[in-house]
Structures are given as C-alpha cells and as structure tokens.
Amino acid sequence: YASVARGYKAGGFNAASPPGTELYGEEQTWDFEGGLKTTWVNGRVAANAAVFRIDWEDMQLNLPNPFVPGEFYIANVGGATSSGVELELNARVHPNLDVFGSVGYTKATFNDDSISGGVPVGGNTVPNTPDYTRSLGIQLSRTLPQGTLYGRGEVTFSGAFEYDDLNTERQGAYSLANFRAGVRGRVLLVEAWIRNA
User: Fold this and answer.
1) Over the stretch 30-73, which tens digit does the pLDDT of each residue have?
2) 37 φ, ψ to 5°?
3) Confidence class of residue 167 from pLDDT cuts 50, 70 and 90?
4) How far are the Cα atoms of 97, 184, 191, 194 from residue 188, in angstroms, in the given order?
5) For residue 72, what are the contacts with CB-CB under 8 A and spacing of at least 6?
6) What separation in angstroms does the CA of 10 have from each of 28, 58, 76, 120, 132?
7) Those residues with Cβ within 8 angstroms of residue 19's Cβ, 6 or more apart along the chain or in another chain
8) Region at 64 (left for phi over 0; alpha for psi -120 to 50; beta for the rest)
9) How far apart are CA 100 and CA 155, in angstroms?
C-alpha cells in the first residue's frame, strides 16, 4: 500500500505571550507512507513493514514564556522532517499461545532555517520523538465450557527523546511492562491488569 496526505492545523491567538507573538500561523504537513502487510502459514503469522516521512511547514510548538515562569505560548518555529520505519510480527505458535513484537526507528529534525524564540534550532531533534521503539509480548488463552481464560504480558522499550526544541532537557531511554489477565464469558468479563510497571 502507499498513501500521500496533506495535513493542516489552524493558526490562532495566544491569550498570554511575549509582545509581538500573540498571533501564530497555520501549520501544514505532507505525509507519505508505504508498506507491506502479509500473512503466512494459513494466517497464523502476520508480518508488516512500513516506511514513512512527514514534512512540516511552519510547525507549531509550545514555548516557555521567558517573562512568566511556568507559562507557555504557541509559536511557529519553521520546518521539520520526520522519517522512519516500523516492523511488526504476530504469530500464533500454538492454539493457546500468541507472541508478538515490533520495532520502529524515527529521525525527526528541524530544518536548517528553523528559529524558536529568536534562537536557531536547525538540525535539532523535534521534541517528544524517541529515536526508537520496541515491544515484545505473549498471550496465553484457554477455552473453558462457558468462556475463555487468558493472560497477557508485554514489555515496551522507548529510546531517549528531547523535551524542548533547544535540546537542553531530555528523557533517557526506558522500558515499561503491562500485564492483563481475566475470564471472558458470553455476557460477563472479569479482568485484572497492571500498566506501566
């Protein structure tokens, strides 16, 4: 498959911002994506791959107000580009056992002429964009006379990412685990779960 889309975010007005930055303009994007979705072994294995690219024009970002600590305003900072690849694999290795995993890589940077709050940010990493993501999980299930008993666990890994457009503050790489178990009947579901362990 392949797709091309045009994105749009309206401009607006900041109720509180440094003088001269009350208005901000619209943001536009071109989004390109292509990929392949496949099934194997009579549908028991699914493997998917995708590549993507996003080109921003006049990207809108929340910037800290230098005159009011803890207050932010929206401003256009210029262009940016994000591109990457994602791979997914899901397999039913036994009628009662599914395994799944994914891996993704992203590179998102500001264009060379981008300026934020009067400071050049060209080449900096776009905030809140981890350079990689990974996940791995397993699900067990067993059919009962009146429903299904199941348990599921997965671990997700996230690469480091920047908190701000100046790339002065960052979150290091981390991992989280999620667990879920329950019994599903025809009209009743009983479930327990733990997220972000």
Assistant:
1) 999 999 999 999 999 999 999 999 999 999 999 988 888 889 99
2) -120, 125
3) very high
4) 23, 6, 10, 20
5) 62, 63, 64, 65
6) 9, 11, 12, 24, 30
7) none
8) beta
9) 11
5-21 mean pLDDT? 93
Structure tokens at 171: 């979150």
| Whole-number CA gyration radius for the chain | 22
Q: Which residue has the tokens 């997700």?
A: 156
Torsions phi, psi for 21 (to 5 deg): -120, 20
User: What does the pLDDT look like over 145-163, one tens digit per residue?
Assistant: 889 999 999 999 999 999 9
Cβ–Cβ contacts within 10 Å for residue 125, how many? Answer: 22
Here the tokens at position 159 are 């690469």
Distance (Å, rounded) from C-alpha 136 to C-alpha 153?
9
Burial 56-79 (b: 16+ CB within 10 A, else e): bbbbbbebebeeeeeeebbbbbbb
